[in-house]
Amino acid sequence: TGKTFLSVATACRFLQSGTIDKIILTRPAVEAGENLGFLPGDLNQKVDPYLRPVYDALGECIGAEKTQEYISLTKIEIAPVAFMRGRTLSNAFIILDEAQNCTLAQLKMIMTRLGRNSRMCISGDSTQIDLDHGRSGLEKVVTLFKNTDQIGMVFFGKEDITRHPLVEVIVRKFEEL
Fold first, then answer.
1. What pLDDT does residue 89 have?
2. Under 8 Å between Cβ of 125 and 99
3. Which one of 16, 41, 82, 93 is most buried, by most CB atoms within 10 A?
4. How far apart are CA 50 and CA 52, in angstroms?
5. Which residues contact 156 (CB under 8 A, 6 or more apart)?
6. Chain mean pLDDT for the chain
7. Cross-strand bridge partners of residue 92
8. Angle, CA of 24, 44 and 8, to the nearest 5°
9. Containing H/E element for 122?
């Protein structure tokens, strides 16, 4: 449906207009049904596989070269969910991708990092939860904040799928199971 792309495109627009100073990308380190085990390298190299979809969207929005430049200038920061506690994220656009794989405690911790002049986009798909049953906090957060004036929510349906036209058919067939 383009959730990641839309959040990244909006963040890039805010960054390039000078509305914010940096983009902070975070995502839970949860695999989709497979355990990849220990990953070598520094922190960025370890989280890189989890953030591939975000990097793809950044490449489409600002290009690979500009993405690398912004990362080296810390205008784009990779911040794993596990290392967010205690931070105040000011003058930033925070993107929490794949939030369906965050627990309620993790979502509370991330949402309360919001600092002055910051925006946060939390995206997820409740049909793609990789946590044990009942552990995802996303639907609880949606219910809790759905009538909060300062928080906007956008919901996508099958008709909003932007990938190959066959993907909508595939999604519908899996829903029949």
1. 97
2. no
3. 93
4. 6
5. 1, 2, 3
6. 90
7. 22
8. 35
9. strand 119-122
pLDDT tens digit sequence for 79-123: 888 889 999 999 999 999 999 999 999 999 999 999 999 999 999
Rounded Cα distance between 81 and 88, Å, is 13
**Residue pair 120/88 in contact by the 8 Å Cβ criterion:** no
The third-level CATH classification (topology) of the domain covering 3-175 is Rossmann fold (3.40.50)
Question: Which amino acid is located at 48 in the chain?
Answer: D
32-49: per-residue pLDDT in tens?
555 545 667 776 677 777
Residue spans per domain, the chain: 3-175
Percent of the chain with pLDDT over 70: 92
Residues in the chain, how many?
Answer: 177
